[in-house]
Structures are given as C-alpha cells and as structure tokens.
Amino acid sequence: xxxxxxxxxxxxxxxxxxxxxEQNQRCIIKVMDGSSLLFDPDEEDDEFFYQGxxxxxxxxxxxxxxxxxxxxDRVYDTDHTNENLFQECTAPLVxxxxxxxNCSVFVYGATGAGKTFTMLGCENCPGLTFLTMRDLxxxxxxxxxxRKFDVGVSYLEVYNEQxxxxxxxxxxxxxxxxxxxxxxxxxxxKPIYSAEELLHMLTIGNANRTQHPTDANAESSxxxxxxxxxxxxxxxxTGTKRSVKLSMIDLAGSERAASTKGLGMRFKEGASxxxxxxxxxxxxxxxxxxxxxxxxxxxxxxxxxxxxxGGNCRTLMIANVSMSSLTYEDTYNTLKYASRAKKIRxxxxxxxxxxxxxxxxxxxxxxxxxxxxxxx
Length: 376
Ligand code: ADP
Ligand code: MG
Hints:
Belongs to the TRAFAC class myosin-kinesin ATPase superfamily. Kinesin family. KIN-8 subfamily. It is found in: Cytoplasm, Cytoskeleton. Residues 6-344 form the Kinesin motor domain. The chain is of the alpha+beta class. Helix content is 32%, strand content 26%. The chain has 10 helices and 17 strands. Strands 1, 5, 6, 9, 10, 11, 14, 15, 16 and 17 form a 10-stranded mixed beta sheet that branches. Helix 3 (82-98) runs parallel beside helix 5 and helix 5 runs antiparallel to helix 6. The longest helix has 24 residues, at 265-288. The two termini are 15 Å apart. The relative contact order is 0.18. The structure holds adenosine-5'-diphosphate (ADP) and magnesium ion. Residues 115-116, 221 line the site of magnesium ion.
C-alpha cells in the first residue's frame, strides 16, 4: 500500500475570461493527462508535448519557451466541474474527517484565477464548500445510530493581519497558544444541527467579508477566509471521544502587491497579504524539506493554519491558474509554489482523546510509530 501522505496538491485550470478571449492571448498551459501539465509550450513543436512528460524540468535551451513539464496529484482541465473536484478530492476528505483526521482544503492562486469559484461556485454550480458540507451531514446522519456528533462552526477572516469573526462581525480577535494549539480568544463556536444551518452560516460570513475592488480584478477579495467545522464524535458503545476539524480556506490573491496599483490602505492590504502568504510559503518549504522547526508563528494566517499543514492533518491544496499568457508570471509562480508543496509528506495519526483508551492501544500505536520511523 502506498504511504499515506498528508498533502495532495492539485491544479485547476480555468477557461478564458472575456478579456482573455478578446485579446486572443497565447495558451500557456497544456494539460497532458490527469496528473501532468506543460507550462509555456512551444506551439509549433507538438511532439515535445508528449516526450519526456515525466521529467520534472525540461530545459530546451535553444528555445525561449520554458516548456516545463510539471506533475501534481491531479490536474483538472477547463472542462472539469466543481462536482468533479468534490467527487474525487473532497468527498474522500469527509470520510477521513469522520475517521478522526483533521482535514483542510485551501485554494491558492492569483486574483481572478478561480479560487472563490472553486470554493463557493456560481448560481448554478455549487462550490466545494457547499458540496462538501452537504456530504458531511449526509454521512453524519447515516452514522448516528452508533455515534453522537456535536458540530460547531467558525468563520474567520484574516485581513491586514487582523483576525475577524465573520459570523458575528466582531474583532480583531487575539490568538494565543495553549496545550491544544492555537486558540482564537473570544471565539465561540456556533452549534450546528443541519447542513442547511451550516450553509446559512457560510452565507452570513460571506456577506461580512472585506471586499474591495482593485485594478487586477473588480471582484477580488483581499482577505483570507477560513471556514471551519469542528466535530466532536462520541462512539456510543465505548464512550471514546475524538475532536476533529474540517477547514475550507479561501486565500487572498497571491499576486505581488506591486501588480495591484494601490496606494495607502490598498497598499497596506497588499503588503499584509504578501506577509501571510510569504509565511505560508516558508512553512510549506520547511515542511517539504522535512525540517523540524516550522515558522508557523510568522503570521496570523499560518498560526491559525498550524494544524492544517503538515502535522496531524490531511491537506488538499488547490492551485488555481488561468491558461492565458496575460497571467504568465502569476501562473508560473503559482505552479512553482504548488510544486514545492507537493513534496510534503508526513505520517498521519487519528485524533483520539487519550483518557478513553485502554493501555494496549498506546503500546500498539507506539510500536507502529517505531516501525514507521525505522522504515523512514
Ligand atoms: P479568485 O477568487 O481567484 O479571485 P474567482 O473565483 O472570483 O477568482 O474567478 C474569477 C472569474 O472567473 C469569476 O467571474 C468566475 O466566475 C470565473 N471562473 C473562475 N473559475 C472558473 C471555472 N472553472 N469555470 C468558469 N468560470 C470560472
Ligand atoms: Mg476570490
């Protein structure tokens, strides 16, 4: 059996928008198959598209095009729907959450690349958050003869390094650390009893998001939005309890502050967004290198995401890109970032409240971990 990995990185390519269509730009991404793509292909040399598709970086020095073949866990071309992504990527995470693993989905990419479309969808195409939450409640209902579920929700926004509660429109909230990790001071979870209620909270929170138009995209969101479902599962026959968390994170645009021609407040927003994303990138790089010290503390985003990256969490990173050469730099940077994240691998363990378990359990776990360590 392949080693369980705690991060899956997928790339989603969005179709041309109106402006890209009108400007008749070159296509800079060719999806080769379900898990690889060619960045910056050379149009006249089609056979190169298929040669050496497994090679990480193809350097053909005589040509100016980068022609980089990149591999990911999955690459979704423009004809794939949110439903496709849900079926293949987040439905398995719902199962993992109910098995006791913290899970997170986050969307990364430049403004306009399709992050919010992926998470929230559009009028006739529900996004991953909706589909995933509906699935979660269906599965909860199918299991409630043997297990009790206590569900709570929180929806936070990190904007200019300030943490706001999107459900109550209060903040800024302070972060502090205790034995269980990072705690958001003053955050009270909203108890939830149905998928409808959960989605209603999502709608309330979305209405409270800080949104400002920028030059790059009139509908851009300059904040990071973190929607988290906290579930306490009690096994009715043994009394074992475990607490798990499913997080859906819509990150702010990853483009450089310089490319959004803002001044004053807008510039500060850009700078903070970059600070948070830079910190996230640093954490990803260190996790990828297998280093012990991960600088989660460098930004509020990474502090909140501490248990969503590496550690005891299954993470799905969706890198959103456009295939138009109008966004060449952004797409290149997003793909580089995603390639780096792909290397993170760590051993998973379920969340179980220890006091409810017999001693043999720990002995078995420790033996398993030692064997795992030996193997690694
Ligand atoms: P972001 O949140 O990354 O800034 P959006 O999700 O708002 O970007 O997407 C920008 C525009 O592109 C929106 O009008 C959105 O509807 C459209 N779009 C994004 N991804 C897709 C897709 N896969 N299919 C169709 N339209 C898309
Ligand atoms: Mg958005």
